[in-house]
Amino acid sequence: MQMKKDIHLTGRDLLGMVQVKPGDFGKYAIIPGTAERRDAILEHLEKPVKSFSFFEYTMYTGFYEGIKIAVGNGGRFSPDSAIIAEILCAGKVECIIRAGSCGALDETIKVGDVVLATGVVRGDGVTPYYVDKDYKTVTDVSVTAALEATAKENEVSIRKGLIWTTDALLRETRELIEKVKKEGAVAVDMVSSALLTIAQLNNVKAASISAVSDNLITGELGFINPDYYEAEARVVKVCLDAVKKLAQGS
């Protein structure tokens, strides 16, 4: 017996499962990965309301200076980033911003710096199910420009470049790092490829900005470094103000 449907479960199916209707999220979504970072964003929002919980992931909507924003802790790894991206796209969100963390692939990028992605070097295991190997995943120009302008207004220095996404955190080898550096990658994460690729396929504007937690070239580990946590706070503020800029059309 063959499957009754071409695809067993779609983003629209998931949206129905969590009992959310298209449009309920509003136009803008910020996806911060960890629950702690999500909660830090929620502190800036007025009237936050839980939209849904799915496994250990919870999405809220609230208002930042009158602008409705969806905020959820999905997006820590490629599979859950794909699920959240599918739900948001099915929910008719128009703009998705990843507020994340990354490892630097350049010795001049320090823990506590901020990296703004211009595109993706895809090394994850999810996107090959969506696109072929030659597909180019890029960030939306207008959303990236808003993030860059807002960072400047907030006196946040940024480094721009490609983000390499991998699923194998403990297999970031010297040989592999040199390969992706030659392809133009300046940082690595475990999210941007799936999130941005699925958004791009659905004609949803998306971008990625991250605080640097470690440096793969120098070996510096900054996961408990105060500079990293301060950078996370700066990224949160930049993302919120970028949404405001986008909503105002400036």
Automatic annotation (TrEMBL):
Enzyme class of the recorded protein, top EC level: transferase
Cited InterPro entries: Nucleoside_phosphorylase_d, Nucleoside_phosphorylase_sf
BP GO annotations: nucleoside metabolic process
E.C. number: 2.4.2.3
Catalyzed chemical reaction(s): uridine + phosphate = alpha-D-ribose 1-phosphate + uracil
CDD domains (UniProt xref): NP-I
Domain of life: Bacteria
Gene Ontology CC annotation, any one: cytosol
Occurrences of domain Nucleoside phosphorylase (ranges): 27-219
GO molecular function, one term: uridine phosphorylase activity
Protein name listed in UniProt: Uridine phosphorylase
Organism: Velamenicoccus archaeovorus
Taxonomic path: Bacteria, Pseudomonadati, Candidatus Omnitrophota, Candidatus Velamenicoccus
